[in-house]
Design a protein that fits this description.
By secondary structure, the protein is of the alpha/beta class. It has a six-stranded mixed β-sheet.
């Protein structure tokens, strides 16, 4: 064991004759990390000594007294960690008594630097990984996490559960995912708040078993766990896959342990500039050793020391740097058929006259979680988990009420999303159409909102291009360019102009059709500057060139009015209908079995995705949902697409981001759902026959 006799000087007054500053850390923790080393920091040489006492307060007092004869300053630390490890049954008074053993030299704990280091680590994490802690589910273990640190965490998230017993009982968000459990959880929290304090103490017991049980449950779904290593061990280290651990004094052995448990990120709140592991109290003693005798350490002294020494918290990535993000996506029943498949509603539905009653009643239900989505892993290694949240209104019910009716339910869904830990929320189906298309919801919600329309536009054109390739009736070169003609009906609109720009990159000739001639002329000029490869034509009526088109996009706001005569379309043409409501009815589509009408392109998500059925193959999502997931994987927690205007640059950007994260075109859907290989072959065969018949008819007409 290192002893004071190893130091030649016998008093602090004699320290000026040494070429180093002696600082000793007497700790209530064990002696397995004890050291006696010479180091340099901030231009000053130190001899650092650690003496572990394994919770023995009398031994700690003795060491402080004996080292005070030669040291320049002494740090006393580890009482909370020792209690968590079972080395000590005493209280914080033991630390005060040991600190008061001598006034010969400064004796410091971590009262100044622990707050600074913990808060700095939290802020550094959020700054380096923007949004990482936003709405994060946090479990605070033990009592070494300072109140100031918790206050800083609350700047980013309200989802904080405490392991230690306290009167402000809070149940984890996982207990509040549907109307029944939300009501029960709220009642339980109210009852707890109304319980007299003396009874709470008795219920919690000396070990705080109630809070501990709640925290253990919450830890399974937590994003962040914070506490000293000893407290984490006492808590019972859970499966840490996908989690960040915020702790202090992280040795290589401790880092290896956390890595073996799957931790994505380990944040060491205490800087570690040496090969040995140090604690905040030791840094505080190092500061005190350089100050005039009798002067207390201030936060200004700490700031100066930190800057001169170049100290900073550590972000450690045991499995390589990666991000795990959280999203929510709002869905709703597209028709009353949905209710037949929902438990007890299905039985009630069979009662004559109850269908309409159910449809109207369910529209008033609060939002609830339909599915937890897991297993999404980007090709970059980043991960995402999310929740599909249902609001009860069918499109008919949404249209039967003012937009504010739907807004209120979407804002309630946003609050549920936030409690679950989501960092961004997407709007699906009719929820992004009602009112101002997400603008009001994005402005009032406490998390970013996106409609997914940028990726929907990109996905529809992606699907159209793939459909042309699979039909194999138009010439497509090695670069994917269509050697043929394309038309956009409604090209002057927000979505139509985006589609026109995309088609100009993939086709030889593009017709822009709209009654707004001036807008078309301006768009033509812009596209020709961007895509000199394509020849651009302008027309106010599609009829003249309709029969020559290989690809047609309809993107009008005609709301049910006929925009083109499908009977004049070329056999084998691919029509992509991106208008909502659709420009082409199911009856129109049925008239032309030799034409492929695409409503949307669905996206295959990367990873081993686990999600309840949404009417698509396993692992496949609608493009609007995929946009929300792409933004989450990218760490772009922002209202990317809201309102009725779609920005061309964002359509390109989200497509490229999707490719970066491993998104693939999965299915191509029409009015009757996803097309199968047999469907493609049927359309192709019908188109070949129709073209042959048309050619024969043309020959007969020209024959004298």
């Amino acid at each position: 064991m290192t002893t004071p006799q190893a130091e030649s000087t016998t008093s602090r007054a004699g320290a000026s004759s040494r070429d180093h500053t002696l600082v000793v850390n007497v700790t209530f923790q064990g002696d397995e990390w004890d050291y006696d080393e010479h180091v340099s920091l901030g231009g000053r040489d130190y001899r650092l000594v650690r003496v572990g006492t394994s919770g023995d307060a009398e031994a700690a007092e003795d060491h402080v007294w004996r080292w005070s004869l030669s040291a320049d300053a002494i740090a006393v630390s580890g009482i909370r960690e020792a209690r968590a490890a079972g080395h000590l049954t005493g209280t914080i008074d033991d630390l005060r008594r040991v600190r008061g053993t001598t006034t010969r030299v400064p004796v410091r704990d971590d009262s100044v630097l622990a707050d600074v280091f913990q808060e700095w680590a939290i802020r550094r994490l959020q700054a380096q990984l923007p949004g990482y802690l936003t709405n994060a589910r946090v479990v605070v273990v033990g009592d070494t996490t300072r109140e100031r640190t918790v206050a800083v965490l609350r700047e980013f998230t309200d989802n904080i559960i405490f392991d230690e017993a306290h009167h402000g009982l809070q149940l984890p968000s996982s207990a509040k995912t549907d109307p029944v459990t939300t009501t029960a959880a709220a009642a339980g929290e109210v009852a707890w708040r109304l319980t007299p304090g003396i009874l709470k103490d008795r219920v919690s017991g000396p070990t705080g078993w109630l809070s501990h049980r709640i925290a253990k449950h919450a830890a399974a779904d937590a994003d962040v766990i914070i506490g000293s290593f000893s407290e984490l061990v006492r808590f019972g280290l859970p499966d840490l896959r996908g989690k960040a651990v915020i702790t202090s004094a992280v040795s290589q052995d401790r880092l290896d342990t956390l890595a073996d448990l799957g931790a994505d990120l380990v944040v060491d709140t205490t800087p570690q500039p040496f090969d040995l592991v140090v604690v905040p109290a030791l840094f505080e003693a190092m500061i005190a050793a350089t100050l005039p005798r009798g002067r207390e350490v201030t936060t200004d002294d700490a700031a100066t020391f930190i800057q001169e020494a170049g100290l900073q918290p550590r972000l450690l990535w045991p499995r390589g740097e990666r991000r795990k993000s959280r999203f929510a996506f709002v869905i709703h029943p597209l028709s009353t058929e949905y209710f037949k498949e929902v438990g007890a509603l299905g039985a009630v539905w069979s009662v004559p006259g109850m269908g309409r009653v159910i449809e109207k009643s369910v529209a008033y239900l609060p939002p609830f979680v339909y599915s937890h989505v897991t297993g999404i892993v980007s090709s970059t290694g980043d991960e995402a988990e999310g929740w599909l949240i249902t609001v009860g209104g069918t499109p008919k019910e949404m249209l039967a009420h003012p937009p504010e009716f739907t807004y209120s339910r979407l804002l309630a869904a946003a609050e549920l999303s936030r409690r679950l830990g989501a960092q961004i929320m997407g709007l699906g189906a009719f929820t992004k159409v009602v009112g101002d298309a997400g603008v009001t919801v994005a402005r009032q919600a406490r998390l970013p909102v996106t409609t997914g329309n940028s990726y929907s536009a990109s996905g529809a054109l992606w699907a159209a291009h793939e459909a042309v390739r699979r039909l194999d009736l138009a010439d497509v070169d090695d670069d994917g360019a269509i050697r043929g003609r394309a038309m956009v009906v409604g090209a002057s609109g927000a979505i139509g102009s985006v589609c026109a720009r995309l088609l100009a990159l993939a086709a030889d000739e593009v017709w822009l059709v709209s009654p707004e001639t001036a807008k078309l002329l301006q768009l033509k000029e812009e596209i020709e500057r961007e895509s000199p490869r394509a020849t651009i034509h302008v027309a106010t009526d599609p009829s003249a060139a309709l029969a020559d088109m290989d690809v047609i996009v309809t993107a009008t706001s005609a709301a049910g009015h006929k925009v083109l005569d499908i009977m004049k379309v070329k056999p084998g043409c691919v029509i992509t209908d991106v208008a909502r409501p659709l420009d082409l009815s199911a009856e129109d589509v049925a008239l032309r079995p030799d034409v492929l009408v695409v409503e949307s392109g669905e996206v295959e998500l990367p990873g081993d995705v686990r999600m309840r059925n949404i009417g698509l193959p396993d692992g496949v999502a609608y493009a609007c949902l995929a946009e929300t997931i792409v933004l989450a994987l990218e760490g772009r927690y922002e209202s990317f697409t809201v309102g009725r205007n779609i920005e061309w640059e964002k359509v390109k950007e989200i497509y490229q981001l999707g490719l970066r994260h491993g998104m693939k075109l999965a299915t191509i859907s029409g009015v009757n759902g996803p097309y199968t290989d047999e469907d493609f072959e049927a359309v192709r065969s019908a188109a070949v026959l129709a073209r042959a018949a048309a050619a024969e008819h043309h020959i007969l007409e020209e024959t004298p």
